[in-house]
Specification:
Layout lengths: L2 E4 L1 E5 L8 E7 L5 E6 L9 H4 L11 E9 L2 E10 L5 E5 L2 E5 L27 E4 L5 E5 L3 E8 L5 E14 L5 E5 L3 E4 L7 E3 L11 E7 L4 E6 L4 E5 L2 E6 L8 E5 L2 E10 L2 E12 L2 E11 L10 E7 L2 E6 L5 E6 L3
Parallel strand pairs: 1-23
Antiparallel strand pairs: 2-26, 3-4, 4-5, 5-6, 7-8, 8-9, 9-10, 11-12, 12-13, 12-14, 14-15, 16-17, 17-18, 18-19, 20-21, 21-22, 22-23, 24-25, 25-26
């Protein structure tokens, strides 16, 4: 029989921001709530309808936004001006923030082997943009289309996972383009985008069709990519280990030494059920050890699917679908 466990309420966006829209929110490596907020009625035009049209629509009008960083009772605002993309990803970087647009214009995502357009004639969208603590632009780079998660680590490295529709274009020495698929997971060392390292070069051992679960810790990064859900452990030098994993289909991950916690979700009687499948990773083997049914504080069952799924070492932060203003925390109990 599965155990039950109530999640802890970790952070809530203050009520005074109730009238503005949340384009993106996250919990950073210091445990702070970050949110990208926009007034939907600024300049008399609704911003979100434009943003939600998708990457193949005409460019959205320039708009202003505010980043709010909440650390307990402490709060810091960063004003941002002239944004031109639907930034749905956010994290801390230094004393500022970094934003990511998950989808980019179709002109940046041509089909494979289509080299008809010379590289110098295509201006790739810089869909990752960094700002310092005063809101001044500090760097930007093209990161490809189909971003799943954007997380930074304490050292300032930028980690990006991709879902199964991802593409990444590279200029070839002859001036034409090469288009890559199944990017999986990549790391950038600075907000200018150079150098970068892709982790899909693992031969036929790992299939990086979709990086389902990602945990960016203080020193190590763990990922469980689709289709085989192998547990891939990464450090600053590259891939440390690749471990067979019998727990498949899980979309969130917490790690504490050998203890593992995988987020799994399913529907029971039309109601979403959040579960943690507990495991141990030892001697090159992942062994499942139990299951926990998750509830929200007070024992309330979730009203929607778990979103966010920010894994950082032993912690996994989640929010309910449709409510990125309130985050809950699961922590591995070894």
């Amino acid at each position: 029989m599965a155990d039950s466990r109530n999640l802890a309420l970790h952070a809530t966006l203050p009520e005074r921001y109730a009238r503005v829209d949340v384009l993106a929110s996250t919990i950073d490596h210091r445990g702070r709530l970050l949110a990208l907020l926009v007034d939907p009625a600024q300049d008399g035009a609704a911003i979100l309808p434009w943003c939600r049209r998708g990457p193949w629509e005409p460019p959205i009008p320039l708009f202003d936004a505010t980043v709010v960083i909440c650390d307990g009772d402490d709060e810091h605002q960063i004003p941002l001006h002239g944004l031109d993309q639907w930034f749905s990803k956010i994290d801390a970087l230094g004393d500022g923030v970094i934003l990511g647009a998950a989808r980019i214009p179709a002109a940046n995502t041509q089909q494979p082997h289509d080299r008809s357009a010379p590289a110098h004639e295509t201006n790739l969208t810089r869909n990752i943009v960094a700002f310092d603590g005063d809101g001044t632009r500090a760097g930007a780079f093209y990161a490809g289309d189909g971003i799943g998660q954007l997380l930074t680590d304490p050292g300032g490295k930028i980690w990006i996972s991709y879902f199964d529709e991802a593409t990444y274009r590279c200029a070839m020495p002859d001036g034409t383009w090469s288009v890559s698929f199944m990017v999986g997971l990549a790391r950038w060392n600075d907000p200018d985008g150079t150098p970068w390292f892709a982790y899909n070069d693992t031969g036929n051992v790992v299939e990086w069709c979709d990086c389902y679960a990602l945990n960016v810790g203080q020193a190590l990064v763990h990922a469980c990519p689709y289709t085989k859900f192998l547990l891939v452990e990464v450090d600053a030098s590259g891939v440390r280990s690749i471990t067979p994993n019998p727990i498949t289909g899980c979309s969130g991950l917490a790690v504490s030494d050998s203890a593992l916690a995988f987020l799994d979700q399913y529907r029971r009687n039309d109601t979403p059920v959040w579960t943690i499948r507990k495991a141990r990773g030892q001697d090159g083997v992942v062994t499942e050890t139990g299951t926990e049914i998750l509830a929200l504080p007070g024992g309330r069952p979730p009203a929607g699917w778990a979103r966010g799924k920010i894994g950082r070492d032993a912690n996994l932060w989640l929010h309910e679908d449709g409510n990125p203003r309130q985050w809950y925390r699961y922590e591995i109990d070894c």
